[in-house]
Design a protein that fits this description.
The protein is globular. Helix 6 links the parallel strand 4 and strand 5. It is built from 16 helices and 20 strands. 43% of the residues lie in helices and 18% in strands. It is α/β, with parallel strands linked by helices. It starts with 23 loop residues before the first helix and ends with a helix.
């Protein structure tokens, strides 16, 4: 579904830093990377020439394996950060199966060459676009949705006829082991292979001339992936993140907004790159919104802090470093004058940060400095929408933007005055689940997109083909550049301009 983006350096993986010496086990994995890359490169032409039926068969094998092992997957993710089984179903397994089904249904059509028009001046020729596999691609996936954010680009890469090398995050080791076994049981290594490990494995992967680099994570590492790709002039997709804002206007249904926002913010313990990062609400509506929001929190997770901490429906922060970062930024924000309306509890041993809502927040407080990536929701107020647009546009372009309004003119105004990777009106997150929409960022929130047909195109080369089937009219422009024929041809082309 979504992925970690810009967080403080304490929690950023150092997966691409140079390593002075490699452990023996890591050395073995680096050697395996080299061998598998060569085997995939040798096999790439077989895969690229595969038929729709052959690619669909590969995808169906993956689908069958996922369905057969869904309980094992849920248990692996729960072991990594106590993600509820229902959330695994709704945000990891179901979207992946939907992506698979959509791709299988449409792949034959996507693979067909697309006829395009040919100008009159080139009469005697026909033109079409062929979709060819890029070759051998690498997918570096994150920890926050450790299955879905690896599987979705993998589906697109297989559909496009590529060989694929995968690197899941070492922050979710149980899920990483599950993925390695799943892929090993479904595909031979010269088609798809998984490589587990940390910095040295990622570094070793980026030394190889892949035809496409696909990375989901934070902008700092994204830059390093892009630099690695430039060595080989390879194409890149970067799925990053940013502070995704919410704008609530006077006409909004506050109860419906509170319910959607509480779900979207606290699913996966807020570790979602398209999670609502902060809310702008009219000053006159703030108290009513906060009351509605706190009522939803009680219904979702319990009335007291003890009940919420014991709730089986709330995940944990992924590791101690992430927990320390969140606690520190929360403490500094409260010290700066923000008020804790709900939550505020942080328990280190269990990596628990309670669903937290802050009021009295200003744009200069610590919680507004970077993407929160945790279950803390700041609420800001406004008198004029222009000040909201100014603040949003001062920062990096967000991955998502959410608007709650019953006024279609106001919604159009927001679209005209802001930019973002995607927009949802009167809900949150759901655009990610539509395979007919492109998913991706803009500027600091990402480069390129995928899902559905857009994913197939991301992992394909669009090859232009023109066929001359009769004598070309262009011959009248061959040298020498004089004579009545060329004079007539020149006049005719000008008439067509």
């Amino acid at each position: 579904m979504t992925h970690p983006s810009r967080v403080l350096e304490e929690t950023e993986p150092v997966m691409l830093e140079a390593v002075a010496s490699l452990l023996p086990q890591a050395t073995v994995e680096v050697d395996r990377i080299r061998a598998v890359f060569e085997s995939q490169r040798a096999n790439r032409w077989n895969l690229s020439r595969s038929t729709p039926a052959e690619r669909i068969a590969r995808l169906r094998k993956l689908r069958e394996a996922i369905i057969a092992r869904r309980e094992q997957l849920a248990e692996a993710i729960h072991q990594d950060f106590r993600k509820p089984a229902m959330e695994v179903e709704l945000t990891e397994i179901h979207p992946t199966l939907e992506e698979l089904n959509h791709t299988v249904k449409h792949l034959k059509s996507w693979m067909k060459p697309k006829r395009v028009a040919t100008p009159l001046t080139l009469k005697g020729a026909s033109s079409h676009v062929r979709f060819e596999a890029k070759g051998v691609v690498v997918i570096l996936s994150p920890w926050n949705y450790p299955f879905q954010l690896l599987a979705a680009p993998l589906i697109a890469a297989i559909a496009a006829g590529n060989a694929v090398m995968l690197k899941p995050s070492e922050k979710t080791p149980h899920t990483s082991r599950f993925l390695a076994k799943l892929v090993r049981d479904v595909y031979p290594e010269n088609e798809v292979a998984v490589f587990e490990g940390g910095a040295e494995v990622a570094e070793a992967l980026l030394q190889h001339p892949f035809d496409h680099f696909f990375f989901t994570g934070n902008p700092n590492i994204g830059r390093k992936v892009m630099m690695a790709a430039t060595k080989f002039l390879s194409s890149v997709t970067l799925e990053l993140g940013g502070k995704s804002p919410v704008i609530i206007d006077e006409s909004a249904n506050l109860k419906a907004a509170a319910e959607a926002l509480a779900w979207g913010k606290f699913v996966n313990a807020g570790q979602t790159c398209v999670a609502p990062d902060y809310i702008y609400v009219p000053a006159s509506k703030q108290q009513a919104f906060l009351e509605a929001f706190k009522a939803v929190l009680t219904r979702f997770y319990g009335e007291t802090e003890a009940e919420r901490q014991a709730s089986p429906d709330f995940a944990r922060v992924v590791d101690p470093a992430a927990w320390r970062r969140l606690k520190e930024v929360l403490d500094r924000t409260v010290a700066a004058g923000a008020k804790v309306e709900a939550g505020g509890t942080a328990d280190g041993p269990s990596r628990y940060v309670s669903p937290t809502v802050l009021s009295g927040v200003t744009t200069r407080m610590p919680i507004m400095e970077g993407e929160i990536f945790g279950p803390v929701l700041p609420v800001l107020t406004y008198e004029r929408r222009e000040e909201v647009y100014a603040h949003i546009n001062e920062g990096g372009k967000p991955l998502a933007l959410y608007v709650f309004s019953q006024d279609s003119k106001m919604v159009e105004e927001v679209l005209q005055h802001t930019t973002s990777g995607g927009v949802v009106v009167n809900n949150v997150l759901i655009h990610v689940a539509n395979p007919n929409l492109p998913f991706g960022g803009v500027g600091m929130s990402g480069l390129g997109n995928y899902h559905g047909h857009y994913g197939f195109k991301t992992f394909s080369h669009e090859r232009a083909v023109m066929v001359q089937w009769m004598k070309s009219l262009a011959a009248v422009f061959f040298p020498p550049y004089r004579g009545k024929a060329q004079e007539w041809a020149s006049r005719a082309t000008r008439m067509l301009e």
